[in-house]
Amino acid sequence: MECEPSDVAGLVLSADQSSPSGVIDVVPGAQSILATFDPVATDETTVAHWLRALPVSIAPLTAAPLVELEVTYNGPDLAEVAAACDMSPAEVVARHVAGDYVVAFCGFAPGFAYLTGIDPTLQLARHSAPRESVPAGSVAIAADYSAVYPRSSPGGWHLIGSCDAVLFDADREPPALLTPGTRVKFREVDQ
Amino acid sequence: MIELVVVKPGVRSLIQDGGRLGYLRVGVTESGAYDRGALAAANRAVGNDASAAGIECLLGGLELRCRGGASIAVTGARAGITVDGESAMFGTAIQLVNDGVLRIGRAKQGLRSYLAVSGGIDGLEQLGSQSTDTMSGIGPAPLAVGDQLSIGQSSGAIGSPAAPPVVRTDNSPIRVTPGPHDDLLAAPLAELLNDGEWVVSPSSDRIGLRLTGPALPLTVTASLPSEPTLRGAIQVPPDGQPVILGPDRPTTGGYPVVGVVIDADLDRLAQLRPGTRIVLAVDS
Fold first, then answer.
1. Domain ranges for chain A
2. Cβ B136–A25 below 8 Å, yes or no?
3. Which of B124, B226, B230, B266 to mutate to probe the A interface, most A CBs <10 Å?
């Protein structure tokens, strides 16, 4: 089902509250939601009807769990981002810290969460050529999203800081620190 | 304690089970046996649950020594099986005595053979599964010489004597449900598939089956907002050469998905060798 990007997290939390029998998984994307179901237990019409009728929960703005991430704003792209946005690096940091973020969806790698709520003045297209290796814990921005790289990987986002939190651990339950609907605040700390 | 010791790992052998279910929304794909039916058949033959952990062996060449006795079965890609050098039955339970050596020869038909052992492989689970996720590195590394695989307690159930399914190598079309983005194609999907034949690329793997052949022409060049992916989804990158996503695919993707292979035909994808010509058709 396609939906507004700003509604994704609220729809997923709402789906979790009211999932009918036979629905196996509800997975969000940037502006769509995938529901998988057991065709023996239910059918496409029932599931589609349920999805389309879902209310957008306001929990991501209020009641959902809040994770605070401590960030050292020392990213290799901070100066370049500041120049591109026509502001000082300190202003970039202030605006990034001020944001109230919500995890819309995860993808790209285990535990990689796309956070909505970025200040519109910080929205930059991603690098045309991705870095071969972005260090784990890098705090990054690109287009409508902010994110923290859960582990070292290639990546095309602008790196503005770093964070020590373990975002993903396959030997932990739950494995991901940030899941769709989670609220996130960034807090600046010294190195 | 019963163990299987890897004497030779073959081209590439992986631990796989029924998959890592329920973590798509945090970016963890299912993994699990590529040919689900073949692993289930091997497990049934030795009296295990259908989703117990076994070995997915690409192209054969796997050699194992058994410490303690066990019942094993090999299904999927057809290959010669020997126990201590003597020819043994493919597809049904065979007994390995202490120190017995099982060898799976080079696959003659199909690509992936599955080995199940009574009691199942009893290794470390991560997120509820022992499967190797070749994309994310979750789960055990591919088998290597000297690896010792613990075997679980056998249920004592008698294996099913029924003949296992044979790998299909016919050229009947792989059936596809159109959508969600077939409207971005320059012509109706059914026509484009009807007119074409594709060859399985050697760069195919558990992440995706890459096809080369007539380009599927898109009317857009930009990628779409990231969407959740499905096993069997047919992604069309800008060059028009389709990729059918496999069990280790990324959980989201931005290329248009013009159709999804129907569930009943997904297992066939696991057995397509590079160079195989295939036909796709809209499921009617």
1. 5-53, 64-188
2. no
3. B226
CB atoms near residue B190 (< 10 Å): 17
CA angle B169, B244, A145 (to 5 degrees): 165
Ranges A43-47, A86-90, B6-10, B219-223: which has the least confidence: B219-223
**CA B2, CA B148: separation in Å to the nearest integer?**
10
Q: Give the A:B interface size as CB pairs under 8 Å.
A: 80
Q: What is the mean pLDDT of chain B?
A: 94
Q: Does A181 touch chain B (CB under 8 A)?
A: no
Residue B284: pLDDT above 90?
no
Q: Is B278 an interface residue toward A (CB < 8 Å)?
A: no
What CATH superfamily classification does A64-188 receive?
Cyclophilin-like (2.40.100.10)
Question: Which pTM does this prediction carry?
Answer: 0.94
**CATH of region A5-53:** 3.30.1360.40
> Of the candidates B254, B257, B260, which has an alpha carbon nearest to the alpha carbon of residue B280?
B260
ipTM of the prediction: 0.90
Across the interface, whether the CB atoms of A175 and B28 are under 8 A apart is answered yes
